[in-house]
Design a protein that fits this description.
This protein has 151 residues and is of the alpha+beta class. It has 2 domains: 4-111, Alpha-Beta Plaits, CATH 3.30.70; 116-148, no CATH class. It has 3 helices and 7 strands. It has helices spanning 21-32, 58-75, 98-117; strands spanning 4-14, 36-42, 47-57, 80-86, 89-95, 122-129, 141-148. The strands form 2 sheets. The protein has a 5-stranded antiparallel β-sheet. It has a two-stranded antiparallel ribbon with strand order 6-7. Strand 4 and strand 5 (89-95) form a beta hairpin. The radius of gyration is 21 Å and the shape is elongated. The mean pLDDT is 83.
C-alpha cells in the first residue's frame, strides 16, 4: 500500500468567458473519488475558488496537480499561483498560460532578491566586467552577487 500524505491545494484563478459552470462539475467528478473537493464559481469576479485535499498517495497528488494545470491552461486567461501544503510543507503550484507563469516565476525571484537587500545577514559583492562578444560592447557590465554571511 502506498504511503499517504496530508495534502491540500487551495487558491483562486480567473476564468475566461468560454468557461461554463458545468465545466466545474466535470472537474469535481474527476477528482471526487480521490480527494475532498471544494470548487466554487464566482460569476461576478469570473473566478474559481478551490480547495482540494485529504490523505493522498504521491501518485494522486501528481494526478490532481496535472488535472488543475490542464483546467487552468484551458479556461484561465492568465497565470495563477495556488498554495500547496504537503505534510505541513508549504509550496506553490503555478498554473495557466506559459508566458504568465514565467512572469510570475521572474516576479518571485525578483521579490526574493529584493528581500535580501534588507536582510542584515547578506553582503553584496559588486564588480565591473569587460563585456564578452564580437564586437566588444562599449560599456562594462555590472555584476552583483549576494553572499550569506551566516554560512
Amino acid at each position: 500500500m502506498p504511503e499517504k500524505f496530508r495534502y491540500a491545494l487551495s487558491g483562486a484563478m480567473p476564468v475566461s468567458d468560454e468557461f461554463e459552470p458545468d465545466d466545474i462539475e466535470t472537474m469535481r467528478r474527476h477528482l471526487n473519488g480521490i480527494a475532498e473537493v471544494y470548487l466554487v464559481y464566482d460569476s461576478i469576479a469570473q473566478t474559481i475558488s478551490l480547495r482540494i485535499g485529504g490523505m493522498l498517495a504521491y501518485e494522486d497528488i501528481g494526478f490532481i496537480e496535472r488535472r488543475v494545470e490542464r483546467f487552468a491552461e484551458r479556461y484561465s486567461p492568465v497565470g495563477a499561483i495556488l498554495l500547496t501544503e504537503c505534510n505541513n510543507i508549504t509550496g506553490q503550484l503555478l498554473v495557466g498560460h506559459n508566458w504568465d507563469v514565467q512572469c510570475l516565476i521572474a516576479l518571485g525571484a525578483t521579490k526574493e532578491a529584493l528581500e535580501k537587500l534588507t536582510d542584515p545577514n547578506f553582503e553584496f559583492l559588486v564588480r565591473l566586467e569587460q563585456p564578452q562578444g564580437n564586437p566588444p560592447q562599449p560599456r562594462p557590465v555590472l555584476r552583483c552577487e549576494a553572499v550569506d554571511t551566516l554560512k
